[in-house]
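G.,

No rush on this.
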Amino acid sequence: MPIKQIVHQTASRKLVRQVVRGERHDVFRTRQSSFDLHLPWLDDQWGATAAMELHFGAA
């Protein structure tokens, strides 16, 4: 959809500009993923695995 059409439908040129430029991410409401609670742990595990591979070499 062209940006002009989006602006016309939303009536907020400033908001559309901010979204297009990547300055706003809070306008799209998304559900929380079931993984969100586990992401810190998964990141730690991934970091530990990557460090082991760098130290010992990938098999």
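When you get to it, here's the other one too:
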Amino acid sequence: MEATGVTTSSGRLMAMNPDRQAFLLLRTVFTAAPIIFGLDKFTNILADWTMYLAPVATSVVPVPAQTFMYAVGVVEIIAGIAVAVRPRFGSLLVAVWLLGIIINLLVLGGFYDVALRDFGLMVAALALNRLSPGSVRRQR
């Protein structure tokens, strides 16, 4: 990803390549959001996260819903850090995690709007993967 050729009379760069801008925006969001949401699983300030957990999850893993959410929080924090450090890998981790959340919400029912939003986030995580350095790109 190179800078564009837009410069001032002094030769300074006016704008970054749009691919690079998109990469930085997505990497920033997919670093910060999972870490913030992961930390909130321990405090429940933003939401009561257990209401989004399908009962089948705690029947498969027989622990209280809040304990399950603590584990979810740890995974989300790790995913956010992975995006910051290795965005190509971390973006796939986030996409798979979001797919799991979508499936959970569809099984739970009643939160189809949230599942649709998370589908959009999953697509954005996959876009981050495609924009990440080292990913295979089509020839122009």
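Residues 18-40 form the longest helix (23 residues). The two ends are 13 Å apart (CA to CA).

Enjoy the weekend,
O.
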